[in-house]
Amino acid sequence: MGITRYIVRRLMFSVALVLGVSVIIFTLINAIGNPVEILLADRPGITQEAIDAISRYYNLDQPPLIRYFVWLWNVVRGDFGTSIVYNQPVGDMLFTWGLETMKIQIPAILISLVAAIFIAVTAATRQYSRVDFGVMSGALLGQSLPGFFVGIILILVFSYWLGIFPSYGAYSTRRMLMGSGLIDGLWHMVLPVAMLAFFNTATLTLLMRSNMVDVLRHDFIMAARASGLPERRVVYRHAVRNAFIPVLTYLGILFGLMLGTAPVTETVFTWPGLGFLYIQAIQQLDYPVIMGETMIITVMLVTATLLTDIAYVLIDPRIRLE
Amino acid sequence: MTEPGAARPLLDVRDLRVHFFTGAGIVRAVDGVDFAVQPQETLGLVGESGSGKTVTSLTLLRLSPRPARVVGGRIDFEGEDILTKSEKAMTGVRGKRMAMVFQNPAYSLNPIYSIGDQLGEIVRWHEKVGRREGDARVTELLRLVGITDPGARLRQFPHELSGGMKQRVCIARALLCNPALVLADEPTTNLDVTIQAQILDLLLELKDRFRTSMVLVTHDMGVVARMADRITVMYAGRICETADARTIFRSPQHPYTRALLESMPRVDHSYARDDARRLPVIAGRPPNLIEPPTGCRFHPRCPEAGEECRRIMPEPKAIGPGHTVSCLKRGSSGVAA
Ligand SMILES: Nc1ncnc2c1ncn2[C@@H]1O[C@H](COP(=O)(O)OP(=O)(O)O)[C@@H](O)[C@H]1O
Ligand SMILES: [Mg+2]
Questions:
Q1: Nearest chain A Cα to B110, which residue?
Q2: Smallest Cα–Cα separation from B37: which of B61, B2, B4?
Q3: Cα–Cα distance between B42 and B231 in angstroms, integer?
């Protein structure tokens, strides 16, 4: 099958999936009840007329089915509605807060990928040695540490004791570090990126090491050695690329879910990202934000999965699209 | 075992010992092995599975897998000791002076690189040539191993080739740099019977054309009968008997060699019917190499074994021109072990 036809078919499937997710999340939010009533219920002095007026303002007086299609039509036109809590257009919020999340997620994924390959190769080529044992235990332990614990340790050591990196926010509120907006921004990124990279590295290292150990057992590795290729080349050109193929799926998921997978990091470092926003939105039943963000995360995941499949075809000649 | 007046051997292995240091104990996979290969000669290395043939071959390239260690012996190849060379010097031997064809062609090509890519890499690495010259060399070799339309095959991937084709590619890979010695480890064991004969004929033809020596490793006496100039019989990490092929088949001396020959299907027997799957096999089990039998390792399965065979490990003894045997019943001396 041609790659274009394959992509078209996958895109159609993706649209159906995104619509399905939107129906589910919409139904769930509706099952909770009228958010305006819930949010304002305990306020003293609020009248039923006021609640009705606000509900009308947010279209909450309409039947759910109508409201869903109104929401859908608006989304198609690029309008995600207005945040109940922030009173700002949800589309703009998703964009600015989403950029902040990507700013820490993308470097974290890339750094951990390079680190994991290097560490995993070191361990796998010395299977069952002390180095291998150390790497395995370190990665297993790292993977099982609670996220906030690692975050707090980073803050304690690097902000509180050493005073090198700021412990919260994406920018300085008063004077910029070193007088430059760019350096100031990068400086704030260091600890949150380190925390995200820590967990990614642990998982990717375990995955990559076991694949490497597996690949290194194959005859074609011995054959490459027997052909006189130096060990470095055998390991990096012949083994790593094979061992990397199963990691692609995991990498696709890391990228695909990145907007929604940093809530703990963003909370610990008060980072103005989508994970932080999502938690807030759920606590305060800011349903336009919940809907919009769920949509963005789903679209990202679906896109990343499609790109992963295409990457497979490019990297592994045995795979044919079907 | 160099005969007087014979040329200096290309490969001379003396008292080679390779042990695996495992949690369960020391596996004496290769435990005192001697053999030599003359220029342009084919030596058949024969023995049951598990007798240490693959470990021996890999050790010749100094690639014995962990946790194996060479614990003794010498490997002289082209007048130099393989075991004391630097790792860097070894990359100049492997694939260039001594190459290997592996047992299972399905697994011995890298699945994610095209044929041209992975064979070209080897030529470029050893011969320091560019891509065009490298590809030209690969194309020529593919043609010589009988692959049609070799130019187009360069762009194909291993999974697009049949098992026989893959093994032809592996043979081409071994011959890319015109090595002096090719180690072929059971090159036909994993192929269809009809393809086996073709591959063996191809090896014979190419060996003559390239004036290469070959160590042909197999558990199949039928294969060596067809291919080998001389034959070395291996059992449980030791050599039982070495002689030219005719002598091995006409007057085998070691009881294990005789047993191997008896277990061979013969054309004059009618194995054609349902007997085919019930070939005579050698009674008893191959020994455990962590605690190998004392004395002669074959004694527990040997019809001729006497009391001394249980105590004394026989040493090779020359009993004719180019014919040595390690058996107390054939006049070997030995030490208590
Ligand atoms: N990785 C390993 N660990 C421990 N023992 C091994 C290992 N590989 C091979 N051996 C031992 O070495 C012996 C010889 O193996 P091998 O050379 O593969 O035999 P052959 O090629 O003659 O069938 C086997 O009996 C096996 O017990
Ligand atoms: Mg073998």
A1: A220
A2: B2
A3: 8
* pLDDT given for residue A96 in this prediction: 94
Q: What is the pLDDT of residue A285?
A: 86
Cβ distance A220 to B114 less than 8 Å, yes or no, reads no
* Strands B238-244 and B68-77, bridge-based pairing: unpaired
Chain B residues whose C-beta sits inside 8 Å of any chain A C-beta: 58, 61, 63, 65-66, 87-88, 91-96, 99-100, 102-104, 107-114, 118, 121-122, 125-126, 157, 159, 170, 173, 177
Q: Is the pLDDT of residue B154 over 80?
A: yes
Q: What is the average pLDDT score of chain A?
A: 89
Q: Measuring from atom 14 of ligand 1, which residue has the nearest CA?
A: B52
Confidence of residue A175 (pLDDT cuts 50, 70, 90): low
Closest ligand to residue B53's CA: 1
Per-residue pLDDT of B315-327, as tens digits, reads 999 999 999 999 9
The predicted structure's pLDDT at residue B315: 93
Ligand 1 binding pocket includes B47 (Cβ within 6 Å) = yes
> B11-97+179-266+279-336 falls under which CATH superfamily?
P-loop containing nucleotide triphosphate hydrolases (3.40.50.300)
Q: Which residue has the higher pLDDT, A118 or A319?
A: A118
pLDDT digits (tens, 9 = 90+) for A19-72: 999 999 999 888 887 777 777 777 777 788 888 888 887 777 888 888 899 999
B157 and A317 in contact (C-beta within 8 Å)? yes
CB B43 within 8 A of CB B218: no
Residue ranges per structural domain of chain B: 11-97+179-266+279-336
The Cα A82–Cα A289 span in angstroms is 8
Q: Is B287 in the pocket of ligand 1 (CB under 6 A)?
A: no
For chain A, the maximum distance between any two Cα atoms, rounded to a whole number of angstroms, is 85
Domains of chain A as residue ranges with CATH? 3-76 (no CATH), 90-315 (1.10.3720.10)
**Is residue B149 over pLDDT 50?**
yes
Chain B residues in contact with A241 (beta carbon < 8 A): 112
Q: Taking residues A87-97, what's their average pLDDT? A: 94
Percent of chain B with pLDDT over 70: 93
Distance CA A152, CA A177 (A): 22
B107·A317 Cβ contact <8 A: no
Structure tokens at A194: 């380190």
Whether A179 has a pLDDT exceeding 70, the answer reads no
Q: Please give the Cα distance from B222 to A197 (Å, whole number).
A: 60
Give the ligand whose atoms come closest to the C-alpha of residue B186: 2
The partner residues of A82 in beta bridges, in order of sequence, read: A89
pLDDT level of residue B164 (50, 70, 90 thresholds): very high
For residue A178, give how far its alpha carbon lies from the nearest alpha carbon of chain B (Å): 49
- In ligand 1, the atom with minimum distance to the C-alpha of B185 is 21
What's the angle, vertex CA B260, arms to CA B249 and CA B64, rounded to 5?
Answer: 105
Q: How far is the CA of A295 from the centre of ligand 2 (A)?
A: 57
CB-based burial of residue A201 (10 Å sphere; 0-12 exposed, 13-18 middle, 19+ buried)? buried
Backbone angles phi, psi at B180, to 5 degrees: -80, -25
